[in-house]
Hints:
- The protein is an alpha+beta fold.
- The protein contains 2 helices and 5 strands; from the N terminus they run H-E-E-H-E-E-E.
- The protein has helices at residues 15-21, 58-62, and strands at residues 40-45, 48-50, 65-67, 71-73, 78-80.
- The chain has a 3-stranded antiparallel beta sheet. The chain has a two-stranded antiparallel sheet with strand order 2-4.
- Mean pLDDT is 82; it is low at 88-106.
Amino acid sequence: xxxxxxxxxxxxxxxxxxxxxxxxxxxxxxxxxxxxxxxxxxxxxxxxxxxxxxxxxxxxxxxxxxxxxxxxxxxxxxxxxxxxxxxxxxxxxxxxxxxxxxxxxx
Length: 106
């Protein structure tokens, strides 16, 4: 089952900002510099301008993937957010229960 969220943003808005305004936080470990590729979203319809595609393969591009931090919206679009792009605590920042590390509640 997919969740549908809508957001009205001006032309020229980055996909990452549009997602944020829609209440969808996108993982950007590199700080939005386009170096990690973790913010890749799939644009299923509509016009966008990709400022950088360095972390995307030809196959990714053919399937409509774009880096949210490096892609500008140029009209009405529809986007699919893969699970790996959603913001969550990186594995290297999670408590290591084998060592007994646990900051805060579980």
